[in-house]
Each structure stands twice: as C-alpha cells, then as structure tokens.
Amino acid sequence: MTMRAPPPHAERLDHFMARANTRYYANTPLLSDFITAPEISQVFGELLGAWAAMVWQSMGSPASFILAEAGPGRGTLMADALRLITRACPAMAQAMQVHLVETSPLMRAEQAKALRASLTTPPHWHDRLETLPDGPLILLANEFLDALPIRQFVHTPDGWNERYVADERFYLAPCPAPVLPDARPLEPDTLVELCEPALAIAAWLGQRLARTPGAALFIDYGHASTLTGDSLQALRHARPAAPLEAAGQADLTAHVDFTAFGAAARQAGACVYGTFTQGAFLRRLGLMERTAQLAAAAPEQAQALLSGAERLAAPEKMGHLFRVMALLSPGLPAPPGFEEGLPT
C-alpha cells in the first residue's frame, strides 16, 4: 500500500535499502538465500579468468596491474579464475595484484579461506571501488550492481513523487522529475527507478579507463531497454518476500538499468560493449566445450556439470535473465565475447 505525506520518521527508499542490505550482509550466513553462477559451475569462473587473461594481453601485458572483483561472495569466482590464470597464463599471475571490494566481515573471512591456496599473499580489501589504487585495471563484477540501493519515482496526475518508507509502507512525497543519463523521455503514469551509486561507479570507471588502460566486466540481471516499472524484490529464507518487511533479514535487489549505466560510463570516456545475454556470452567464451572436457575427465560428475552449464545458459533459466556489459579504455580491441558488437 502506498500512502501520501510521509511521517517525520520516514526514510527515502534508497536509504532504507542501503541500511537493510548492510545489516543483511553483515549478519546472514553466507549466500544462504540464493545461489550465484560461480557456485553453480566452476566453468563460470574459469571462463571469466580466461576473459581477463585475453584482455590483459590486449592491454600489452602490463608488468604490474590490478585484478579486482566487486562483490566477490564466497570467493569462488576469483578462486576459479586464478586457477585458470595460473595454469594458462603464468606471466599474468606474476604481474597481478588481487583486490576485492567487499564490506562484510563475514564475506571477507570466507574469501580469505577460498583464496589461500591461490595467492602467496592475502588479497587487498576495499569498502568501495573508488579506493582501488591507480594503475592498469581489470575488474570483474557478477551480481554486484543489483544490490545497490535505488530511488523510485512515481508519476501521478498531480506530477512526480518519490517513494519513502515508514512502518513497512510506501509513502509519496512530491519531487522534481527524475533525470536519467540517457535522457530517455519519461512517460506519464509510470514508475522510474534510479540507482545513483551504480551511475557514480559508471562515471568513475569511465574517467579512470579514459586515462589508464583497463577493462570492467559486469554480469547482472537487468534490462537493456528503456523499461520502467517496479523491480524491487526480496529473498528471505530462500523464498520471495515482501521487500519492506523484516528489514535487514532479507536480500533486497533491483534489476540493473544497463541503458543508464552504459550511458554514464560512455559520457565519462569509456567505450561500452553490450549488453548481450549471459547465455550468448558464455557460449561464445566456450562454456559447452569446457564443460564437455570436464565431464569427460570426471564421468561421475558429468551430469552435474552439464546441468550446471544448462542452468547458466538456457534462455528459460539464467541465460536470458542475466545480461553482460563491458567497459574498456578507448583504443583497446573488442573484448572476448563482444567481437560482434560495436562499441558505443
């Protein structure tokens, strides 16, 4: 239910979402409410490791560079990527410094354990992407943007209003019309979502990539059109839940607006590739071929491996729900998996 005139103790939706998710990730057993692609198949992390290796070579194989991951979960993706890099591209392994963007102490402890066998020194942790040190950069981010807090704007016959939260209810407060970086026209009687932290990250990355060689790969569920509407959702005890109830006990997410994200990065100086569907991207990188290799080497695990690959790529599963976008420094060639798409 949406009410008018927020009470004095109401908070803007993005402030509510940030507070709730900070509490959730700090206190909830690791990824207990959902499973991410790296946990479904080791091939996912291996393919992203191979992607990073090819991008590093296209950058001129810098003797020192940062390999970073934003929202690294249990550390599974990075562990799988590092295993591939160490085996297939040892010179890259010698050149890299691993940095992780993670705020949760629980997650950091789990990541340290996951990467202990892959690194001679512990990774460097950051609360924010913007504190990554200068230098050539390759950034991986899987299901990172979707958890960033959003604002919601509702158009009514009286004009634009912003959603506030109090007592597990939405309230509307009059406001100016929202402004999106892609300057899309705003239709009447719609709800528009704006993720300011994501747009700030896109702008920061665009500026950095314009002055220093690098690339960033984002994989998340979202849309690449000018869709509008309410996408806020919650998972509690692995089941859909009401987003405003039991704040801090559910994982709150929203669909990523890749149109706005790409526009902000482009305006700041980056070349933008995509989006493509996750299924198409992973197949181009060799998902099925690598899975077949592993299945042949371990017949007892073949069914689980093939099932995992299907879950990642099938259109009716994660293949079409998740989308992939790459940001690159101007002058670098098209990244792996994006060769058929011109930069914008």
Structural overview:
The protein has 344 residues and is an alpha/beta fold. It has one domain: Vaccinia Virus protein VP39 (Rossmann fold, 3-Layer(aba) Sandwich). The chain is 38% helix and 25% strand. The protein is built from twelve helices and 17 strands. The chain has helices spanning 13-27, 37-40, 42-58, 76-88, 90-95, 105-115, 196-211, 258-267, 278-285, 287-297, 302-313, 315-321, and strands spanning 2-4, 11-12, 65-70, 96-101, 124-126, 137-142, 151-156, 159-166, 169-174, 191-194, 214-223, 233-236, 239-241, 251-253, 256-257, 271-277, 322-328. Strands 3, 4, 5, 6, 11, 15, 16 and 17 form an eight-stranded mixed beta sheet that branches. Strands 1, 2, 7, 8, 9 and 10 form a six-stranded mixed beta sheet that branches. A three-stranded antiparallel beta sheet has the order 13-12-14. Helix 3 (42-58) packs across helix 4, helix 7 packs parallel to helix 8 and helix 10 (287-297) packs antiparallel against helix 11.
